[in-house]
Amino acid sequence: MSTTVDTGSPGAVTEPPPRPKRTLPGWARGALWGVVAVAMLATTSYLTGIDALTSGNTAQNALRLALPILCAALGGLWAERSGIINIGLEGMMILGTWGAAWGAYYGGVWAGLLAAMVFGALGGLLHALATVTFGVNHIVSGVAINLLGLGVAKYLANLVFEPLSGNPRQSPPVPKFDTYSATWLADWLGELEAARRVGISDVAGLLRGLVTQVSPLAMLALLLVPVSYLVLWRTRFGLRLRSCGENPVAAESLGVNVYLHKYVALLISGAFAGMGGASLVLLPGGADYLENQTNGRGYIGLAAMIFGNWRPGGLLGGAALFGYSDGLQLSGGGEAVLALCYGVVLLLVVLAGWQLYRRRWVAAGLAAAGAVALYLLYWTNDELPRELIPYTPHFVTIIVLAVAAQRLRGPRALAMRYRRGEGE
To answer: What is the distance of C-alpha 28 from the center of its chain?
Structure first.
């Protein structure tokens, strides 16, 4: 049996259709970037002699400090996948810090976590009422939520905590989550780390920090990443919710209750942000409730979500990056942060070479210029100024968003004003 192909003209030669480009799945790309990051840190640690770059203490601090950013990023993901910009994550986290301290003081750590999520969800509900029902601009509503969250937490702290602690800006001591360690694995990894073998000891140090003194809250937050993916991308509810963020008019024409899905998304968003606030209060090593202790982590969480291209796996990488930069300055100080700049120089050199190979001259020139600037910073300083070190995550946020801005693609109907019945 033969098949005749119409060529359109006698003697014409047909070319086979182009083969689709093979691309790595998202999890494989994430794993590859993780390997690149560890290799860069190990090489930098060897060349600079700064062990803090890959120490278990740095990894342990990074995990603890990444949790509030991760929770805020997950909250932003749920909100923005439904089409609502949630710049009010910071205010919802502030409400969560107060709720966590109040609930934990009277009912224990799990009651504190529940109270934090409820207070954060109330902030999300208010944001939904303003943006979905009344059509208020999303940015205006988010800023109002941030100001309101700060004011409400301050008022409640004066009302409840001042009689107990004598300080209107601080709660009395509250219980903390217990922590658990894989003792045998941590001991073995500790021996490998102490052996100071290039590469092996670096990986062992990073892994040891991730299996030592881990709290149930950390396990829960990490579990929420694959759960969010499964719900948003593998269930009917998630498909409908994401359709509200892509084309709410078309979703409504297919029978989707757009208002309901947006409200649910913002309630979940606020609850996750409240959980992020709880991690600042209830984790060992953290302070009890302090006024405005979030310190912009809600905004950093939003940046991590954007850096992750509105995907759960990507935002996990963003939260890890920002948490690591924060944990490094805590465990290693300005000298370690400056050594990290040297590692970024190596990464930029490789990137410049890759762009030259692809004949992207402008990108290669920008990477080379960035490498030169950072190397001059590293060469002319023994350590960074002490006043700048606490702002390391904020600098990383700006740089990462500037680099990643070219490949981002958010929901098409993000921030779009929608009214029921527009598709009729």
So the answer is: 19
For residue range 58-73, list pLDDT tens digits in order.
Answer: 999 999 999 999 999 9
Q: Are 306 and 87 in contact (CB under 8 A)?
A: no
Confidence at 13, pLDDT banded by 50, 70, 90: very low
| Rounded distance between C-alpha atoms, residue 170 and residue 190, angstroms | 37
Distance CA 257, CA 408 (A): 28
Q: By CB neighbour count within 10 A (0-12 exposed, 13-18 middle, 19+ buried), where does 190 fall? A: middle
- Two tokens at 390? 């606490």
Max CA-CA distance within the chain? 94
Cα→Cα distances 221→117, 211, 226, 370, Å:
13, 15, 10, 35
- Region of residue 175 (left: phi > 0; alpha: psi -120 to 50; beta: else): beta
**C-alpha to C-alpha distance for 241 and 77, rounded to whole angstroms:** 11
Phi then psi for residue 214, to 5 deg, are: -95, 135
Q: Are 375 and 347 in contact (CB under 8 A)?
A: no
Contacts of 292 (CB under 8 A, 6+ apart): 94, 150
pLDDT at residue 48 tops 50: yes
pTM of the model: 0.89
> Which residue from 275, 280, 284 is spatially nearest to 113, judged by alpha carbons?
275
Q: Distance (Å, rounded) from C-alpha 202 to C-alpha 51?
A: 8
**312: helix, strand or coil:** helix
DSSP 157: I
